[in-house]
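Fold this sequence, please.
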Amino acid sequence: MDFDLSDDHELIRRTVRDFAENEIAPVAEELDRTKSFPYAIVRQLGDLGLMGIPFPEEYGGAGGDTLAYAIAVEELTRVDSSVAITLCAHTSLGTQPIYLFGTEEQKREWLPDLTAGRKLGAFGLTEPEAGSDAGNVRTRARLEDGEWVIDGAKQFITNAGTDISGVVCITARTGHPTHPDEISNLLVPNGTPGYEQGEPYRKMGWNASDTRPLSFDDCRVPEESLVGRRGDGFKQFLRVLDIGRIGVAAMGVGLAQGALDQALAYAKERKAFGQPISKYQAIQVKLADMATEIEAARLLTYKAARLKDAQRDFTLTAAQAKLKTGRLAVRCTEEAVQIHGGYGYIEEYPVCRMYRDAKILTIGEGTDEVQQMVIARALGA
């Protein structure tokens, strides 16, 4: 097995790292503090072709693979999680359903703007009673005179309320009396009457990303807004979530690496009792354990990406990677704050923001408990 990255993948890493360090790092603290959506950065990501990495060039994408996408997400998260989740949710959740299951007309209508970053895509699955229990959808859509009439609500939705948000793909019960549990996916463009975006949530972290509730009240979209076959919604979003877990796993690796980078740099500069604290064994043990665990998590995440690119079953590995990296990000950011001492509790130091950003990685895109269920099921337990 070859563990080396190709020249193309190394180029992606260098390109995104340079962009993140030069363009995102100088403004990350201000964006977080002011809770400002990074419009200028998203526009630059689009210009670099990063908003459509894993999609074919015929639809405006970069024609890259899943590994290239994971590397880009990792490098962005190494500097700022809000920017990374904006790209990640847009690509894995907002754009993938259209590319994987949409009609050719839907692809031609939406993908060029989405892959170029001119518009953002969102995915509306979570509801008050449909989170970990993803099949317990209460939003309903009935077919009436050639239109789907949607009523319901979604929560914790990313990218749906910005000035460049284009479309949200939502899950809804579309069943008739003989098939009451039928779930389908529907495309709802921003600006559709009856579709409202609520106020942004006040969050622990990811302050520069857009997360808010959505509501649908007699919201009408054309019958052609159905994504794929009617009743295939459950199967579709399970596949989308599998893909999304690779992206979130890459975020966990990137955040843990960013925390290690900050902790190591600080430990080499901070002096106590006459020498840099990096010379003390207690600090060295923390740094060594972080570095070792990060490398293991990175290999697991890359394996999931490679399995998907090889068109092999990647569900188990993606769940394992997501479980491993989310917990690792929490642990590494905590250790980085500890190494910084009192300064780690001060907002001007990036580790403070990183610590706040880490916890959601054990919750979003399926909680740790859901990942354990997926893994146990794959093991035959």
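Residues 233-269 form the longest helix (37 residues). The domain at 121-231 is CATH 2.40.110.10 (Butyryl-CoA Dehydrogenase, subunit A; domain 2).
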